[in-house]
UniProtKB/TrEMBL annotation:
It comes from Lacimonas salitolerans. Residues 1-259 form the CN hydrolase domain. The keyword Hydrolase applies. Keywords: Hydrolase. Pfam families: CN_hydrolase (PF00795). One of its GO terms (molecular function) is hydrolase activity. This is Carbon-nitrogen hydrolase family protein. InterPro entries: C-N_Hydrolase (IPR003010), C-N_Hydrolase_sf (IPR036526).
Length: 293
């Protein structure tokens, strides 16, 4: 399959039609390049706050509420685009008000019309302290026509047990939509994504917000690029980097992957990280402390 992952800039819209036109243009470009799976970044939906005006977009509660209220319309748009262009789409995640709390939720759309969602599991300090966003529903694996896909939203990919649980449940592609303000944030997520590809002998797909949008609360500055990573092993590049974009340059990054290569490296790679993972547990209780005065 061919994967397209976005370095996506936030815009300021005068009306819904402008947002719809932008989404259509991005999807049409990737589909026209032959992509089967399109990945938009974490908090890519925050530009919807602009439809409420400056006072709403510049306020923490106002921006969350404005975006959450538009998620249904955004989902209908993405579902329609997935069906029209015959692609799978991971839409930009959004803060969603659900049952008296706010979660960070990303929706995955299939061309068949099927849709599922994944909530972020572990919040960053900013999400906890400033936004009041909390961990949402359970981890999920999506059994699709493209294979078994799972989603680790940004910070989640820095926690190996989450990825391991998904890999053990059959996921061989992990989508990592991200939103990082500074370069160090980008590299934390990228290092996590590459480490998870190594440990789980799978493919990870990182999408990023890029550029400045000072009128929208919490996403005023964004740094990153798209990247698609695999294990540095047989059938994959020696660096593990299948494709990467250019820092802070908007656009799609593409890579063609073969699920058979994932199965092969797990079964007969130069190393077998996936199979040997369980050997750690037997060694953990036997720590010795040695004094070397």
């Amino acid at each position: 399959m061919k994967i397209a992952t976005a370095a996506y800039p936030l815009d300021w819209f005068k009306d819904w039609a402008a947002f719809e036109a932008k989404q259509r243009a991005w999807v049409a470009e990737a589909a026209g390049a032959g992509a089967d799976l399109l990945v938009f970044p974490e908090y890519g939906a925050m530009e919807l706050a602009s439809l409420g005006g400056d006072n709403v977009a510049g306020d923490v509660r106002g921006s969350i509420r404005a975006v959450s209220e538009r998620v249904g319309e955004m989902n209908a748009l993405h579902a329609g685009l997935a069906a029209e262009f015959g692609v799978h789409i991971l839409g930009g995640s959004a803060p969603v008000e659900a049952e008296g709390r706010v979660v960070n939720r990303a929706h995955l759309f299939a061309p068949s019309g099927a849709v599922g969602h994944q909530d972020k599991q572990i919040m960053t300090r900013f999400e906890r302290d400033d936004w009041g966003v909390v961990g949402g529903g359970p981890l999920r694996v999506f059994d699709t026509a493209l294979g078994r896909i799972a989603i680790l939203i940004c910070y989640d990919c820095e926690f190996p047990l989450l990825a391991r649980t998904l890999a053990e449940a059959g996921a061989d592609i992990l989508l990592v939509p991200s939103c990082t303000e500074a370069l160090e944030g980008y590299w934390r997520v990228r290092i996590g994504a590459m480490a998870r590809a190594l440990e789980c002998q799978c493919v990870t797909v990182m999408a990023s917000l890029v550029g400045d949008q000072p009128r929208i609360y919490a996403v005023e500055e964004n740094t990153g690029m798209g990247g698609i990573f695999g294990p540095p092993d047989a059938g994959f590049p020696p660096t593990g980097v299948l494709a990467e974009g250019a820092m802070d340059q908007p656009g799609w990054t593409y890579a063609t992957i073969d699920r058979a290569a994932i199965a092969h490296v797990r079964a007969d790679g130069h190393v077998l990280n996936m199979a040997h993972w369980t050997e750690q547990a037997a060694r953990l209780p036997h720590i010795e402390t040695i004094a070397l005065p």
